[in-house]
Batch of 2 targets.
Target 1
Amino acid sequence: MDEIREECGVFGIWRRNDKDVSKDIYYGLTALQHRGQEAAGIAVCDSSGEPGNICIYKNRGLVSEVFAEHKLEELKGNIGVGHVRYSTFGGSDVRNAQPMAFQYLKGTLALVHNGNIVNAIDIKERLFKEGSVFSATSDSEVVATLIARLRAKTGSVEEAVKQAVPILEGGYALIIMSPRKLVALRDPQGLKPLCIGRIGDGYVISSEDCAISAVGGEFIRDINPGEIITISDKGIRSDTELCTSESEHAHCIFEYIYFARLDSTIDKVSVYNSRYSAGRALSKAYPVEADIVAGVPESGLTAAMGYADEANIPYVQAFHKNSYVGRTFIKPTKEERESAVHMKLNVIADVVRGKRMVLIDDSIVRGTTIANLISMLRSAGATQVHVRICSPPFLHPCYYGTDVSDNSQLIADHMSVDGICKMIGADSLGYMRIEDLSEMTGDLPLCKACFDGIYPTEVKTQG
Amino acid sequence: MDEIREECGVFGIWRRNDKDVSKDIYYGLTALQHRGQEAAGIAVCDSSGEPGNICIYKNRGLVSEVFAEHKLEELKGNIGVGHVRYSTFGGSDVRNAQPMAFQYLKGTLALVHNGNIVNAIDIKERLFKEGSVFSATSDSEVVATLIARLRAKTGSVEEAVKQAVPILEGGYALIIMSPRKLVALRDPQGLKPLCIGRIGDGYVISSEDCAISAVGGEFIRDINPGEIITISDKGIRSDTELCTSESEHAHCIFEYIYFARLDSTIDKVSVYNSRYSAGRALSKAYPVEADIVAGVPESGLTAAMGYADEANIPYVQAFHKNSYVGRTFIKPTKEERESAVHMKLNVIADVVRGKRMVLIDDSIVRGTTIANLISMLRSAGATQVHVRICSPPFLHPCYYGTDVSDNSQLIADHMSVDGICKMIGADSLGYMRIEDLSEMTGDLPLCKACFDGIYPTEVKTQG
Amino acid sequence: MDEIREECGVFGIWRRNDKDVSKDIYYGLTALQHRGQEAAGIAVCDSSGEPGNICIYKNRGLVSEVFAEHKLEELKGNIGVGHVRYSTFGGSDVRNAQPMAFQYLKGTLALVHNGNIVNAIDIKERLFKEGSVFSATSDSEVVATLIARLRAKTGSVEEAVKQAVPILEGGYALIIMSPRKLVALRDPQGLKPLCIGRIGDGYVISSEDCAISAVGGEFIRDINPGEIITISDKGIRSDTELCTSESEHAHCIFEYIYFARLDSTIDKVSVYNSRYSAGRALSKAYPVEADIVAGVPESGLTAAMGYADEANIPYVQAFHKNSYVGRTFIKPTKEERESAVHMKLNVIADVVRGKRMVLIDDSIVRGTTIANLISMLRSAGATQVHVRICSPPFLHPCYYGTDVSDNSQLIADHMSVDGICKMIGADSLGYMRIEDLSEMTGDLPLCKACFDGIYPTEVKTQG
Amino acid sequence: MDEIREECGVFGIWRRNDKDVSKDIYYGLTALQHRGQEAAGIAVCDSSGEPGNICIYKNRGLVSEVFAEHKLEELKGNIGVGHVRYSTFGGSDVRNAQPMAFQYLKGTLALVHNGNIVNAIDIKERLFKEGSVFSATSDSEVVATLIARLRAKTGSVEEAVKQAVPILEGGYALIIMSPRKLVALRDPQGLKPLCIGRIGDGYVISSEDCAISAVGGEFIRDINPGEIITISDKGIRSDTELCTSESEHAHCIFEYIYFARLDSTIDKVSVYNSRYSAGRALSKAYPVEADIVAGVPESGLTAAMGYADEANIPYVQAFHKNSYVGRTFIKPTKEERESAVHMKLNVIADVVRGKRMVLIDDSIVRGTTIANLISMLRSAGATQVHVRICSPPFLHPCYYGTDVSDNSQLIADHMSVDGICKMIGADSLGYMRIEDLSEMTGDLPLCKACFDGIYPTEVKTQG
């Protein structure tokens, strides 16, 4: 599935004495790179130095493109935050790259943010009326301004963060660095992931635990929905006053289906296991006689292994993926288009020739990519192609940061399953049933609004 | 004189239909490049399009480095502002590059600014208390925030600008672009230059008139101190209510001595003539028997011609200047240092050998450069070197944008003229007398605070 | 296996009228990028234009980094050759990038080359004595000079190529472009792969067939060892006079084990099938009781599927590979080193915890990488790790282009299999037996000198 | 004069122990940058190390753009050569950038070359027939190949250079570096300049003496036409066997008029003096009643001072030159063209208004630039513009490296002086008379073939 784009990854670190946290952040962001490839940034601060002296560098591109070694060496400090971005609300302008740093009455702060504030426009309007001025267009700047204004009236950053929570609607994971502290906040529904780990005599906060192990840290636990964590030289403090009861939680199902890294575990559910189980559930729900099972790289592969295991059909690799077809690759023009999918994914003909196959993908948005793949498989000699999809049909827009917000793009919105099956040229098509999602994630309370239209917060369409 | 750095150049343009003003701004900024080589930026707006849709691009480097052709083509609009920057208050961070664009209650505006707001810290403190948040560190952001806040409470941008004038202390030239208008403002003392011209069916505003002719425009007049000019599709409007009487004017003498381009005319005084007259005045004040007269490139050359003419001594070129020794040139280390001045300026030995010479420079800050040059001239065979300086001794810091704000750097602060003469190794030394400055600029009311300590506004040392 | 680096990929195309072959070459080289990531280059020629007017562009970097769209558009022609390079003999200097273009008595030619000329130094010495001068240091320049000198004495490029064959010892695939023709040559042992396809009214020549399908062409056949193919507007001509009998053929086994792309078929043997069969063979030769089978990405995965299938043990994915850890990634220092493998490959702990596993890799050179992986697997809870290697122990250097030419680097050269097993921390270790290689490639005659020391050509150690 | 482009600058250095000559070369090339701005390169060698180990780096751009500090640090050696290039014969391809390094029978050599070999095509043909192959298209590669082939048959590089002299026709200055020696050669007519200096315990060779003083060296003398200088650890050796008598010398007059730097002295004639004298000569030959004398920057300025002095009319600066209009400046399109000259050169109106002026330029090629300038001067109020040109009319092509080789471009070839005067809009026009050239350079034997068609060598038009 190419059409849904993940959003952002956040990373924060606090170490007692080590002044080279920028390098840890570099490794952490590289581990989170799958969450956003458009821009990357790091802000650090030396808590023993001049207060307010935050060093920041950010630019468009991958982490390894944005940061050369000498850049990291210039970023000296023992506290830091980092960000990888795929643009959601606000456009791809470099002004919207994060971290964002702000001066305000009591000093300086830097902020990184994953997610979407559903009522950002309302809050912005209110801040405008109070005389605020904005230089970027992202909702992160709105959050930062809100917190800075609240901070001007309260005793501490963490108190300002706390006062902001009732105002902010949406899914978000935030890390705020003041010259002496890190403050981390996860939205009260737990839509966005955020976890904490230990590293030496310090702490690390990350969107996913894979980035904690990437820097040699040790996972402690997920931050609870609504929890505010403050790390300073007085140690770590958890404010759970705004934490919600489990019945109010709504963890985004798409983190498991698509966003998160295969080796991460979020809210105690292993991403790998959830996908493998999705494959098993699809096999039970839609059994079919076939010779081989294959997945669409990358996110369909694990489910294909689960399907193969449950159905006792050999798992094979039907596609070769060319990892050199990257961002700067010159795409073929319309006339040359047919070869385009071949460039990135090519069928391994010897594997599929003369075979009845099951093909697993994570989701269908427009349906054009899977249709192409099926046609390639048939050209290579596959006799049957039975498609199984690890998620229910996409019927509703997401307001929390997933970049598919317009119904007209959703094929399932205006076509039956049979119609889609024919359109993509499959022999049969089975979508994961909503009631089977629990096979993926057990009794974890989920946000599955994109499938069932039940939104965990108030929403308002953004003009 | 290498040690004083000019500040900034501003340029604005309003055309009725032409959507390619970015190219005009490109040429205008190239003509103003001498005012700042650190960063360049352009913001444009299409007044017939979506309001608020301002396109902006800025980066470190020369105009020709920052803007490639395709960049200019992306910047479509019929109104625009541009800026070349040398950092004064705020540091060289790219965040401080201009134009600065802001969203506020009533829409969007972009701002370019030359000068220094003396009380920027006080205004910032006041804005902090009202809840403002800043993302850059320059005083331009302070001005923009102030205007945006005032705009939120008043009926028009020009009204907001007008209310800002009594609050802002210092020397400044401002151009503000709202989606439909250009508003230009010159400080009530007229410290910073700003003029207006006609181009086709539109108007152009510029720090110096050389940029007006560079784009094929026609100079109309200087903007008056305290005058607010508004250009929109209703035509041009001048608000003179805050204009001061001539006795309150204080035009910066250093624009004539050093900052402005030789072919500019500011406040009706030709820069070339003022420098040529400075040379004549020096010749009358400090005559000396000599064989040749030469200037230190570039800003000493014209005065040398005037001195030569007055004294009836041949004008010669004593130095070759290597124009390829630019910003990226790798400077010699200390041990290799002696050759450094040779790299940039080399004596033309055949010209000075066996000659008694007069050497003209614009000013002396630390005295090291002129000392080096004199030593080079003597090595090449000059028998006498009589130094004449086009400005009086530097005794007081400038708070209005000139980057020499610390007395300890000023050699004249702690040394007599005789002492300096010995220190630099000259046979005689003559500084322009304060009473002779009128020979340069006639009866133009001047700010010459750096010489006499009489400041035209309240000042406050910035911490 | 990280330690062996593939060498080069070559691509050539001849079209009757289409002047945009540079874009085809771009796609072809992208499909061959796995064969070399250090430098890329394209040379084209318009056969209807001025003879001798060859346009060439090459630089360090990936194909997509070297070629922007406007670069391709400047390269107009209907004949062309392209190259991706990993440096073997000659160093990484950009002077050694290919294509290499030469002027000689009869005109101009461009050449691309994959492989190693074993007696390059001898030939160079001989050319030196005849007065030749070299500006690069690669053996490709030696080949080109040899052919150009022969061409000066003979009637055609193809004749010169033919005369060069008895002089050149080694493994090589060559494509030579003269202003009107493409001439392709494969070494008489068939050590290096080269095949031909049809595209529209033209032809394409490539190291692997995956690049033929990438440009929408149709595979015709492998070029025979010793065969010379000439393509011009007179059509295609095959000169088989120097072709050897099958008993003299010696196809490089490492193309199947490691170099070639999974979806390629070389000399009628599918790379996928050969690797899958290697897994099966390993399972038969070294059965073991285990819960799961996994491969080391990328080249160990297919064999792991084969092993799993043969042994009837579930195939799983034990590692997540971070595809963003690329060439420009800043590697951790020694002290940070432990996390380095984690950055690129991370264990999916939920998969291996409490499991007895079989781990398949393609080969062992130094043994350090596999030792690290095993230690990671045990940390994640794997109870047993049985290692199976798809190739026999590496005992002899390769002189034909594989970048492992020094015995001291080969762990198998100075350690027993038991010793290696202990050193890498495996529970058991099984190398593919030489006699089982036929299970991979059937009765294809192979060069397996790196395992058995039997070289198909004379060799001479290069000083 | 914009239309004639200078050619190249060469620089060589030999130091006993200092391994950082690359930095000296960097400074030397910066001092010679006026001779070529298209490409720059440095090759160095450590004479105490492995023989043949020459390090080289070259690229398109100015010296300061091509060489960053770390690049210079990688170029370690005590012998070196450098080159700045403006393309003459061979095109602007980076393959033609110098130094060129070659391997040949006896080792390695690097070569830098200023000038043009008139019979390069003949020599190339001959080398082709002997089996040579060329990878670049410049005549420098021809020279290098010739020398390498001769070296293969003789005992030393200097002997090979000597044998090459009778074969090479044209104007050239060569520096050849072998791993232990520098060999410098100046053509027997002395068309191109080359001189030698001392630096510490070593030597430096340069196109002009300004580069010797730029590195802190001491000028020794010009190298004689036909002289071969060899520098090695045995000291310096001069071979004068091929030196010609003074009557055969023919020094290029354009070095004085335009190419060389104002502060250089070539063949004992000061460039400054020669230009100043040209001005005096013009004043005597073409006196006119006028108020002011001005020059066209840069090369017309000195002559204008001489004219002013001789005529006793005040010297003034009539144009401001914008030094920021550089190579990357986006030129105005045809419609915007009028402003183009204004961008680079702007009239200082106050200087010329109401004045009768004499305007001095170095030469006229097409006449369009001077016509534009005259029109600008009249617009600014000049009442009369009398043009004086420091060189006779251009009537014949130059075959020795000056980039004007086609008669059709030369306005003087098909128009009378009166016609040109009218065409450019001058009130009067006076060209330097051929018989007056001796006033510039005394009795120095000159090549003035471009004026009188008398070529000092055989010439042959290059196809």
Note: Residues 1-6, 88-92 of chain C have pLDDT under 50 and may be disordered.
Target 2
Amino acid sequence: MSTPAYTELFQRHQRLHRLGHLQSIAQWDQSANMPPKGNEARSLALAEMGGLLHQLATEPQLKSLLEQAAAENLEADQRANLREMGRAWRASNALPQSLVEAKSLANSRCEHAWRAQRQANDWAGYVENLREVVRLTREEATLLADGTGLSRYDALLDLYEPGMRSAEVDRVFGDLRSWLPALIRQVREKQAQETVIRPVGPFTQAAQKALGLDAMRLMGFDFEAGRLDESSHPFCGGVPEDVRMTTRYREDDFLPSLMGTIHETGHGRYEQNLPREWLGQPLGQARSMGLHESQSLSFEMQLGSHPAFARLLSPLVSRHLGEQPAFEPGNLNRLLTRVNPGFIRVDADEVTYPAHVILRYEIERPLVEGEIEVEDIPALWDAKMMELLGLDTRGNYKDGCMQDVHWGCGLIGYFPCYTLGAMYAAQWFATMRRAMPDLDARIAAGDLAPVFDWLRENIWLQGSRYETPELVRRASGETLNPAHFKAHLQSRYLG
Amino acid sequence: MSTPAYTELFQRHQRLHRLGHLQSIAQWDQSANMPPKGNEARSLALAEMGGLLHQLATEPQLKSLLEQAAAENLEADQRANLREMGRAWRASNALPQSLVEAKSLANSRCEHAWRAQRQANDWAGYVENLREVVRLTREEATLLADGTGLSRYDALLDLYEPGMRSAEVDRVFGDLRSWLPALIRQVREKQAQETVIRPVGPFTQAAQKALGLDAMRLMGFDFEAGRLDESSHPFCGGVPEDVRMTTRYREDDFLPSLMGTIHETGHGRYEQNLPREWLGQPLGQARSMGLHESQSLSFEMQLGSHPAFARLLSPLVSRHLGEQPAFEPGNLNRLLTRVNPGFIRVDADEVTYPAHVILRYEIERPLVEGEIEVEDIPALWDAKMMELLGLDTRGNYKDGCMQDVHWGCGLIGYFPCYTLGAMYAAQWFATMRRAMPDLDARIAAGDLAPVFDWLRENIWLQGSRYETPELVRRASGETLNPAHFKAHLQSRYLG
Ligand SMILES: [Zn+2]
Ligand SMILES: [Zn+2]
């Protein structure tokens, strides 16, 4: 079958993948290894590459190649790949190269400065860089929205969760808002009766790292195709062939790093198990940010905070950190399911986490739409933290609106994905339990293979073959249904 | 002053520098971090970037831009930069793509087979591949020599040491040859009387790494602009703004890693101190391979094996590896200056090392010129090893002419740089001592700043502003003079 236009597009995407590989590794290195004086040159190099990739993704021939390929005789997967090529093309061609380069430079600068500024609680310094990032992000959103009828915010949201709209987020988050504060109160009352033994530190970084590596092995991470390092903001980067996970360590508490590592392992295994024969092509990529988060939360929350899972984790903890009463499985699970409203999103428990996301969504949406300005963020943050979690963050930028670097990196429209992911994850496990009624017994017996097999088959190996709603329907038999998340929280925390 | 062509060239070189930055970091990562399953994707990514950089360096407009810029009104540094742009352009454009590809194929075939062939002492197998590499290297040399009036060998030598000619190498190596074998005998006789205490291992990798980092601090490495990691083949990579040094550790002996680290620190500081305002341009690059080696050998040999330096090193060694009689300064210096003719170049001491290089030069020059053929190598090797070092290598290809992979990789014309570097280093220190008669006392007092200041001013900050002979003359007041190297060896080893 002769498919010259499709074949040409296929080769161009291989090339983008190869050059993007160097960019991904250099970005990981920037966070995990790079000394401070390397930052300016690195930012310029990444901006240059960003511009080059944008140039390759916007070459004029692509439009007619996509049109010609649509008329070629393609197999189903090729046609799906072509659909994703078109999606990538539309995303890339909305923005002029000058904007792509300016964004890359502004984001790198803002992120780099943030490291020291956050330590110094220096909002005044940070806002100077953030203002420019937001200005460019609004410009990007306007161009993305042009001609689609989408609002500026929806145009950004669509980049991370194709097909998702703020109206839908409003509905789902509105539902959450209607029962979450009450649920938090109920859980807090129930847990007030419980005795929980705190682990006694300090825990050396070396011991925590060894524990984290063992947890990654338990979760099936392939160390021949990836590694674990440290960075101030943990992430899962690199390329599917070589996944670069990072974490950070606190000597006084090992759980944030341990559970963060298990979380990133979920991202990492998704990447490591994408369809190999499609790597380098749009079809070979992870479906969406929300889907990605559904994997990390399947690992961290659905499995990691499962009462039976604590029996698998407990011996690992004792092996690396010594014997302590706190490490007993029942207590370990109580520690992991302790609900405690706090300042920091990444340290938040499963129940209060959605409140952090709702808060950010309620700030970033009007921020992009131009209804508020960066100067308004702290006051809004303070008000919403008090309203949703009853916490006072006034003057505490470090643990308030400067805790995340997302906005400083121009990553706006992304936060909802965390809670969408939590909902998808609850839906996956509800589906698994229908198919395997003994699932919880198998987890208790240390047999995690059924979970990994289900995820590999239904999510990982699907790549971007289907659009999100279709993937969700094929995997679980229905579209996104927040009832599963509610049932999960009620069963785990009030059951 | 309007200089449109020069400005255009300037911007194109900035772009090459930025993209090359990502390539350098990814290459470093491949050696220092990358898990095995990442290799195929990484190799494809680096090859893609290599092709892209070659394409950018051979764009047809460059020729006329260079011609136009030559007629523009440029300042002295700009003109020097343009001269170096021209050099880079000629190197990239001398060879047709077909030859570049044939060379790359032949080199990797030869190198790959060499790994097993060397183990098996299989000269007959190796020579089959080497013949093709030499044939293509002669073809390359012919094209590089075309129209320059250079001989084929000189055309290759000029790639690594701009301005150096084999007539000059003949002169300095001829001088060296006239006194080196006798000097080696004298030193051996003198050292036969000495008692040297061997260090007692094992030495943990962690302790050796901490020692190496302290040695780098002593040598002034800027850890805000670089780092030290591990790889199986130590090198100094990265970019001037972010130098990535590597070393490897042997638990039974700490000196190879320690002195290797000090050696690479010399390369690293050269890169870190290139003229900042010219970074990204050819003028901002290190001058040559020989000059680079003159920095690593200034650190490793001129300073590192200086009797007074042992008094600075000894407390560092004891701090990290514990107290041992072997670590006493006098003994440490005897260990570092032990002369012992051996088969292997990379294990050779300061005094016998030049013999290994002279031998290779005396074979590779006539080989490229077509005066001998690959079949003649073993007999020449055997004769010269006996003549220069009194060692019998007959039939021992593994530790003889198959020990280095340089020729098999098509790297011919490079070997002289090692000993030119040693000679330059001796010349720098002779110059410093004329200007600062108390230099050795200052080294003994731990004051290394005068050395670093001199190197920074005379070598590092000069970048590629001058061709090598001119740089040498400006730095030391004369052209390369082997008498300084002779005086250095006599003073250190027979004094
Ligand atoms: Zn995540
Ligand atoms: Zn070197």
Note: Chain B has a mean pLDDT of 96.
